Amino acid sequence: MRKLTALFIASTLALGTVSVAFAADSVAEPRTDRAPMKMMHHDGPGKRGPFAGLNLTEQQRQQVRDIMKEAHQKRGSEENTERQALHNQIASDSFDEAKAKVHIDAISKAQAEHMLERAKAENKIYNLLTPEQQKQYNENYQKREQKMMEHKNKMQEQNLLRDN
């Protein structure tokens, strides 16, 4: 009887802990009163990008902030609206492929516009750099591309091994 009671209590505690963990994940409040989150990487925020380690002057840092702020302000909320509309289409009782394609095309267009604005902003930042900083930027870019290719190859190898 004691073993049964102990097993019951242990399983209740284990299940209770798991459900509390899931509840904590699902109840997170949206971030409305803070600045937008920066992209996080394993090495911390902004540590591995092509602009990392360039030893920018304070004036350059301020110019970069201004450029990024301007680019961020140009970005619309159209993509989020279209994503929600696509979700509503997916979660409906019937699926209208033509409507889904319209939403997907709008999302793709918004993403392309965002990429274009980001490229323009990065070009402006690049042109603020000294020749030495530009050289470091290009080296950082090459290192990052190499790591991405290595990661891609590793993932392809893993997929091949998994599929065989």
TrEMBL record:
Signal peptide range: 1-23
Tagged with keyword Cell membrane: no
Superkingdom to which the source organism belongs: Bacteria
UniProt GO cellular component terms: outer membrane-bounded periplasmic space
Annotated CDD domains: CpxP_like (cd09916)
Regions that span the bilayer: none
InterPro entries, per the entry: Cpx_auxiliary_protein, LTXXQ
Gene Ontology molecular function: unfolded protein binding
Family membership: Belongs to the CpxP/Spy family.
Name of this chain's protein: LTXXQ motif protein family protein
